[in-house]
Amino acid sequence: MYEERKKRINWAKIFLVVIIIFLLLLLAVKIITLIRFNNNPTKYYSKELDSLQSNAKAYFNKGNIPKEIGESDVIYLNQFEEKGIVHELIPMNNDKCSLEESYIRATRLETEYQVKSYIKCDKFEDSKIDYVSLDESKEVTSVTTTTTRETSIPKEETTIITKATDEKTKSVETTKKQVTTKKVITTKKQTTTSNKITIGFNVNGGEQISSVTVNKGSKIKLPTPVRYGYTFVGWYKNNIHYTSDTVFNDNIILVAKWTKN
Q1: How far, in Å, CA of 244 to CA of 234, rounded?
Q2: Which of 235, 231, 234 shows the shortest CA–CA distance to 260?
Q3: Which CATH number is 223's domain given?
Q4: CA angle, corner 48, sides to 196 and 83, nearest 5?
Q5: Which of 221, 175, 204, 193 is nearest to 87 (CA)?
Q6: Helix (H) or strand (E) holding 154
């Protein structure tokens, strides 16, 4: 009896040791992953650049892109607050980023416009460029003009000849008739209006989430972002909480709110 009880106790200890070793290995993998990520500025800032580019495309839409071909509109990161753009560039560790030199820019082209985001930090400097078709972002109005044309066409020619007699004089009467016709091309107006809005997501240090385009007055299932070491609280703008029950009627950039674990 004593021997059997001793064996059961030994198996319990072995099982406990295995669990402890497994947890230590799991913790070591997470620490190594975190160290690699923190020591890789390119990977870290590339996510920041993707987030900035997403917000840039949400901001530069049909309402505020440059009007003339070749014209550009540049907004530096230190001007974001006055422009109502919600985005925070978080430097890596003790690195420093220049808000006066980092920017977003829209350049009007013939059939599209270019959106560029640029980040300049001590350990990173890069840009990202996308092109947006004007057909998808601009209201298009097509008008067929009306043309009215008058044409004079000889329709009929009649000649009447009366022969002269002894008591009558000879006379010839010629009558020409013209008929005027009108051709009218009716006016056709075709107006295409956009009922779409764009919802952007400033993940505020979390993993990148692409913006979405929906119909005005729609509800959408808001995504849940991920940020290592933090717990997601919700989506906000100007201290207003937005949920999946919110009806969206205008372009907006939502900002993720976090609490540190």
Answers
A1: 11
A2: 231
A3: 2.60.40.4270
A4: 55
A5: 204
A6: strand 148-162
Per residue in 83-142, pLDDT (tens digit) is: 888 888 888 777 889 999 999 999 988 888 999 999 999 888 999 999 998 875 443 333
**Residue 172 covered by a domain:** yes
Alpha helices in 68-170 (DSSP H): 80-83, 134-137
Residue type, 92: M
Residue 84, classed as helix, strand or coil, is coil
Q: Where are the alpha helices (DSSP H) in 130-179?
A: 134-137
Between 176 and 68, residue with greater pLDDT: 68
Q: Which residues contact 177 (CB under 8 A, 6 or more apart)?
A: 155, 156, 157, 158
Question: 41 near 95, Cβ under 8 Å?
Answer: yes
Picking from 194, 209, 208, the residue whose alpha carbon sits closest to that of residue 251 is: 194
Structural domain for 243, as ranges: 195-261
On whether the CB atoms of residues 113 and 132 are closer than 8 A, the answer is: yes
Pair of tokens at residue 90: 């978080």
- Tokens in use for 74? 């540049």
One-character DSSP codes across 171-190: EEEEEEEEEEEEEEPPPEEE
Structural domain contains residue 96: no
Does residue 39 sit within a domain?
A: no
CB 199 within 8 A of CB 248: yes
Q: Distance (Å, rounded) from C-alpha 66 to C-alpha 84? A: 18
Q: Taking the CA of residue 49 as centre, how many other CA atoms within 13 Å lie in the half-sphere pointing to its CB? A: 21
pLDDT above 70: residue 241: yes
Among residues 125, 154, 189, which one ends one of the domains?
A: 189
- Domain assignment present for residue 214? The answer is yes
